[in-house]
Write a structure and sequence with these properties.
This protein has 6 helices and 13 strands. The protein is of the alpha+beta class and about 260 residues long. It has one domain: Fumarylacetoacetate hydrolase, domain 2 (Alpha-Beta Complex). It binds 2-oxoadipic acid (OOG) and magnesium ion.
Length: about 260
């Protein structure tokens, strides 16, 4: 179905910009994972044509809670761009049905060619931080197949990263594999988990991400933000709230929302 990739990417791009959900691409159409990643790439190319820049990469479904919530089982990779980085209050007016989830972020200190035989993504990480990701599936009712969600750039919508902690400090002081994670909305606990829920250890997300990036031809650049995946199921996000993710020992990160959903 080459040639239709751009057309399908445009359907999802339009949904993103208007806030109008669309039917799943797999509805009445054969769509495999290779097609899905080609559509994701075409969608990122559209954003780049508008002047956006790739800012990093994200993993999805690294936690059982997330995979169970969405009825899928494989780890997937998506692309972050600079306009997804929330600065200040996030206006949800053009969102469809946003959800928020607590994550761990890594900062990449050098370019990594994920396919190079000696590539070591974890070794290139300089900082670690708590993060929040806002996901907003472009599909009706937030329902999709694995290929659909990959084509939709893994539902990526926005993200915010807390204060970066130097990796030497993290390694000396924290067991990143066992930190309690709590999500609060307006001071009320909305979800709770552990960094252990991210593939058993968020550090394990890096070789997984490297493998996926190599397979799908995704470059990993110095200064890039890498989201390891949510530690809990995602929580519906309303306008006019303050969300806080706390990763014990690592820090906390806030996101305020506004607008008309
Ligand atoms: C896909 C995105 C999954 C994560 O952290 O697991 C994800 C979705 O749930 O819509 O970002
Ligand atoms: Mg996520």
């Amino acid at each position: 179905m080459t040639g239709r990739y751009d057309e399908l990417a445009r359907v999802l791009d339009e949904a993103t910009r208007t806030g109008e959900a669309v039917p799943q691409l797999s509805d009445g159409r054969a769509l495999d994972l290779a097609d899905a990643y080609a559509i994701q790439r075409a969608g990122i190319a559209l954003r780049e044509q508008r002047g956006e820049r790739v800012a990093g990469a994200k993993l999805g479904f690294t936690s059982r809670a997330k995979a169970a919530q969405m009825g899928v089982s494989d780890v997937i990779i998506g692309t972050l761009t600079d306009t997804m980085a929330a600065t200040g209050t996030l206006d949800l007016t053009r969102s469809i049905h946003p959800r928020v989830e607590p994550e761990v972020a890594f900062l990449l200190g050098s370019d990594v060619d994920p396919g190079a035989p000696d590539a070591d993504l974890a070794a290139a990480v300089t900082h670690v931080a708590p993060a929040l990701e806002v996901i907003d599936s472009r599909y009706r009712d937030f329902r999709f197949s694995l290929a659909d969600v990959v084509a939709d750039n893994t539902s990526a919508s926005a993200y915010v990263v807390g204060e970066w902690v130097p990796v030497a400090d993290v390694r000396a002081r924290l067991d990143l594999a066992a930190l309690p994670v709590v999500l609060h909305v307006d001071g009320v606990e909305a979800a709770r988990g552990s960094t252990a829920d991210i593939l058993g250890d968020p550090w394990a997300a890096l070789p997984a991400l490297q493998r996926m990036a190599a397979r799908h031809g995704q470059p990993l650049r110095r200064g890039g933000v890498l989201l390891a995946g949510a530690a809990t199921a995602a929580v519906p996000l309303q306008a006019g709230v303050l969300v806080t993710a706390t990763v014990a020992g690592l820090g906390a990160v806030d996101l305020a929302t506004s607008g008309e959903l």
